[in-house]
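User: Can you model how magnesium ion sits in this protein?
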Amino acid sequence: MFPPKEVIGLDIGNYAVKIVCFSEDKKTVKLRDWGYIPLDIKADALPDEKKAIISKEIKTYLKKKSIQARYTAAAVSGNAVIVRYVKLPKLSRKELAQTINVEAEPFIPFDIKDVNLTYSILNDFSEDGEPKMNTVLVAAKREAVQDKIDIIEGAGLDPLIIDVDSFALETLYSRLAPKGESNSVLMLNIGQKVTNISIIAQGVTRVVRDIFVAGATFDKAIAKALKSDTAAADAAKRAHPLLVSEEDKAAAIENFDREGIAVSKAAAGVLRDLYTEVSRSIDFYLSQGVDHSISKIFVSGGMANLGNITKFLSAEFKVPVEVVNPMAFLSEQPKNIPRDVLPALAVAAGLALRRLKDWEE
Ligand SMILES: Nc1ncnc2c1ncn2[C@@H]1O[C@H](COP(=O)(O)OP(=O)(O)OP(=O)(O)O)[C@@H](O)[C@H]1O
Ligand SMILES: [Mg+2]
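Assistant: Here's the modeled complex, given as structure tokens:
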């Protein structure tokens, strides 16, 4: 089988569908196409209706842009996936393939029959004289994987890979990171329902956790503060930056910017909850006796656009915080992607790159 020449990275989110397609010519990667399709699906739509609407949106978009690629990489996240780093007795690859379900069972909180299980061996070591190995187990609920496959097929595409959001971010980071990266960084992908937290140490993901503090949580908090609905809250969150410095706060008070102050307060409250959750993951990582603390935080997802979010987070975490530009590694920078769409394309870019990476192996 020849590897497909072009693969569509398709990030089917709760807020928007993101599309990225790269092409590679003589080792130079170029952006072939990208897409951002905001979804407006009624809350009471049935699951099958929802899937059909998303498929149709994707199909229409691909047709409009005359995108020919058919092979697709998508991902699951949130409640649908469990990632566990576990020590297992040293087994050959063949032995592990045969016994993986039994070995994994105690670590997976779902019925093993309901999940697609994959794993990867990280390294071998010895403990109390016994040969062991560090592995990462990934269990994705079959139903969630099938939902993505249904949407892809419904759009007339061919599902090639179903990945995990956080691993797509690792793939992207491997392109963005300086060569021979020796630091540990934290990726924070804040979407609509889910925030993916991952810690990448020397290029390898060591902690993966998805939490449910994300865009919708901001909308709810802002709606409560403004006594508005969530649609108005979404608009307010786009219009008002977080007030971080004393000068920002003083200026808002002087200008009687009541709405701005209320939005900032509500958003800061949610960010503090997010901070607590992220700190837990950092503490967990540090408790494993690693010698590198987190040197930088990269924020992506649509919520990376919240005004002053990097300023706010770097003041809380006391490390530099940067918004991800998933195209930064390209030798030629695309000019037509709106600034606020860029960070939302991170997962889709990682998915599209994963394929390029796999060809090289
Ligand atoms: N310019 C902006 N300013 C503020 N917030 C924004 C902006 N653009 C997008 N957002 C917010 O980003 C969130 C959507 O982000 P994203 O597209 O990463 O989510 P998603 O991938 O569809 O969701 P999920 O991963 O949870 O399924 C929404 O809450 C949206 O309001
Ligand atoms: Mg997302």
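A couple of observations from the model: Residues 11, 13, 191, 301, 347 surround magnesium ion (ligand 2) (CB under 6 Å). The chain is about 40% helix and 30% strand.
User: Helpful, thanks.
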